[in-house]
Structure formats: C-alpha cells, structure tokens
Amino acid sequence: MTQKVAVLGTGKIGEALLSGMIRGGWAPSDLLVTARRPERAQQLRDRYGVEAVSNAEAAKAADTLILTVKPQDMGALLTELAPHVPTDRLVISGAAGIPTSYFEERLAAGTPVVRVMTNTPALVDEAMSVISAGTHATGTHLTRAEEIFSGVGKTLRVPESQQDACTALSGSGPAYFYFLVEAMTDAGILLGLPRDKAHDLIVQAAIGAAVMLRDSGEHPVKLRENVTSPAGTTINAIRELENHGVRAALIAALEAARDRSRELASGNG
C-alpha cells in the first residue's frame, strides 16, 4: 500500500480507523493525522508511530483525506483546506448528515468525494460502514474507501439517497440495542436477579443471537420460532410485546431518526 492517507480531526472514531488500518497492514509511515490540541497530536505520534501535521500539510501530502471532525466543524475545516486540495485527492467524509454536494461546492471543481457513515462498534472492529459516491467519485475511489474502512468491520455500498435510512438503521442502531439491554436488565432485577447477573445473561443472549443471525443464514422469524414452544414462556412474552405495540414503536422510531437525518442534511440543525 503506497497511498498516503491522512485522518483529519482524529477523535475516537478517527483513532479507531487509524489503528484498524495499521492492523490491516498499512505502514505508519504512510499515515498522517491532524488534531486540534498539540498534546493529542503527540499522543497519536507516541501510540502509533504516525506523523502529526497541520490540516494544510495533510492536504498537500496525502492522496486520501478522511475528514472525521464533528459536522458543526466541517465548514471551517473545508474553508481551511480548500486552497490546498488538488482535484486528484480523494476526500472521504465521515460526518453524519452532510451530503457530498456540500463538499463538492466548497472544494475545487471535479474533486472526488466519498461519503461514509460508520458506527461506534468501529472501536471494537465490528462497525458497519456505509459508503456512497459523490458526483466525481469512481469505482476505484469506492474501492479505496472500502480498503480503509474494512479495517474496522464490514462495508456496504449504497446510493447516497439511501444514506439517511442507513443512518437511522445502522448509524444509530447500536443505541437501540443498548436501550433494549438496559430495559431487559431492569426486568431481570424486577424478576429477582442481581443487576450484574441480569446484565451478563442479557449481553450473552444478545451476542449469541447476533452470531446466529449472521452465520446461520436463517430468517429471523425462523430463529424466533425455534425458541417459541406452543403455550410456552416465549410466546407469552411475544404476545405482550405485540400488545404493547413494540414492533410499531420501532418502525416509528426509525422513521423519526431517518427524518432527523434529512433535516440535518438540509441544514435545519
């Protein structure tokens, strides 16, 4: 891998991506980082052996720029970068809700931009990173983005028009599972279990169920039916979930997340 890659605004997700790239075979000498605070830059140098530079220096030296700053800071970063980004650079945005057109309008005409929505399981190499091409990005650019983000999990290409739906389903998705685990743990306490034991039981059930969904190839309805005996405990629990409209609530919740993503993309923050 001879391409030089710069991670700009290296926070938690940026650092997870950096470490995943190194584990995946990228040489630290081919990686650059930028950070707002000098002590953070030094920490990244010491931890990964990479070079910490200014944003302008990164734009001049790297073949691929990965922008991982917060959405509200993206405008200022692009103003700083624009004079230094040639049109042969690949710009990858990791900012939720910001369309590729936002970058294309602020950078030199013809600059290839790829939009990536990843999620926090990148911190444990179990992310789902959803990748979309801007107007000038080619298949080669998408492949380069996949090579980078595959270091922290799986990748999926989608049209940019589907990014808001993916944000609702996958970007925010881990929070829904944490919410469910929290509620089930409270139920375990109500049923007489200590919190730590209830937590361990639910977390392992979640891990086991996720692995079965991933590896078995079975439809989730089939896997659920395998647990659901006639007149048994599970079907009684499922009935209560349906009586309380849990399925409808989940659909409505994801629609609300999708709609909020659209609002953010249109600048109605």
Protein model, in words:
It contains twelve helices and eight strands. It is elongated, with a radius of gyration of 21 Å. By secondary structure, the protein is an alpha/beta fold. Helix 7 crosses helix 12 and helix 8 packs across helix 9. The mean pLDDT is 94.
Topology:
Blueprint: E1 5-8, H1 12-23, E2 31-34, H2 38-48, E3 51-52, H3 55-61, E4 64-67, H4 74-81, E5 90-93, H5 100-106, E6 113-117, E7 127-133, H6 139-149, E8 153-157, H7 163-171, H8 173-190, H9 195-216, H10 220-227, H11 233-243, H12 246-265
Parallel strand pairs: 1-2, 1-4, 2-3, 4-5, 5-6, 7-8
Antiparallel strand pairs: 6-7
Classification by helices and strands: alpha/beta
Oligomeric state: single chain
Residues in helix, %? 40-55%
| Spatial extent as radius of gyration | 21 Å
Largest sheet: 8 strands, mixed
Widest sheet: strand ordering = 3-2-1-4-5-6-7-8
> What gap, in angstroms, lies between the N and C termini?
39 Å
Low-confidence stretches: none
Q: Mean pLDDT across all residues, rounded?
A: 94
Shape: elongated
The tally of strands reads: 8
| Number of discrete helical segments | 12
